[in-house]
Amino acid sequence: MGCRHTRLLHADAAGIQAAADILRAGGLVALPTETVYGLGAHALDAAAVRGIFEAKGRPADDPVIVHLQDAAQLGTVAFSNELASRLADAFWPGPLTLVLPKREVVPSEVTAGLDTVAVRVPSHTVARAILEAARVPVAAPSANLFSRPSPTTAQHVLDDLRGRIDAVVDGGPTQVGVESTIVDVVASPPRLLRPGGVPSEAIEAILGTRLKVPERGPIVAPGMLPVHYSPRTPLTLFVGPGARANLLRAVVDALEAGKRVGILALEEDTGLLPDGVCTEVVGAWNGTAGSAKRLFEAIRALDAEKLDLLLARELADPAVGLGRALEDRLRRAAQTIVD
Ligand code: TXA
Ligand code: MG
What we know:
Elements: E1 7-10, H1 13-24, E2 29-32, E3 37-42, H2 46-56, E4 65-67, H3 74-77, H4 82-91, E5 96-101, H5 108-111, E6 116-120, H6 125-134, E7 138-139, H7 154-161, E8 167-170, E9 181-184, E10 191-194, H8 200-207, E11 235-238, H9 243-256, E12 261-266, E13 278-283, H10 288-304, E14 309-313, H11 323-333, E15 336-338
Parallel strand pairs: 1-8, 2-8, 4-6, 5-9, 11-14, 11-15, 12-13, 12-14
Antiparallel strand pairs: 2-3, 3-7, 4-7, 5-6, 9-10
Helix pairs in contact: 1-6
Bound molecules: threonylcarbamoyladenylate and magnesium ion.
Threonylcarbamoyladenylate binds at residues 33, 35-36, 38, 62-65, 95, 97, 99, 111, 114, 116-118, 140-142, 179-180, 182, 193, 221-224.
């Protein structure tokens, strides 16, 4: 725990102005976006950006996303291109991040020394109001401690970063619940670096081409570690056709072995679970928008119970829409995957 006083600001005019003032002065403010809470700093102030890495315990080789008030500012931090303009027109403001060649004003702390910068225009009204009042681009990774699940409420931010940052603006629970989709628009064809809030099918429809999707295995986006978003309690994820039966068997086995078990559960499975397990219902099978909104909160809630193990099965078809992002986050959270 750090020794800074962390102010809890309301998402009203006074709170928004206070947040903007702190950002302009080089401080650290956690703010709600439509995806997850971000930990913001003045993106053109190298010392302020270094503060983000310190507060999170984030490795310096993991670049952060620059948030802009509107697409018209893109040219101030990056060199845009035709594909980027099309995607920006279609999806901004919203949960899409574009990777483009960076302008010199962007400090290397933001981009971890890369010659590209990741940029997005968030749609959350509070994020937009803060960006408008601050009148500077804001660098912001998710506002969690390094390798913890991303925060979807102000309380999650305080649980991780109280004493380490100057303020958090409470805008209530975030709407999307998983982070933005990241597309590298320098590459040809454009590459999907991280599935997220905008389904890749929607992006491909605008581009008129398929995105290059990296095979599972080597992680392409810098800082995208295979294990990430992790609960402290080991999570086993069951995938594939036998997932449900294997999950139910594992629950019984663990209980018989005297273990304390938590389930990240689908609504369909709750009736089948024996007594004595801690259950957090995430949503219904293929109810992807609802499950995305609940996922990180459910992981954090189970983790707080200090159980021996957590079990989950796939929440949706992993090849369709938001199901891709759900699958990606679950796999990163899992210590063991059973196929
Ligand atoms: O929804 C979101 O994207 C949230 C909210 C706060 O905007 N932010 C977020 O940031 O998820 P973060 O730091 O947790 O993830 C940023 C990721 C990096 O880990 C890296 O994979 C990718 O964005 N990234 C950033 N700059 C990049 C670059 N120049 N080239 C490739 N990938 C980059
Ligand atoms: Mg993150």
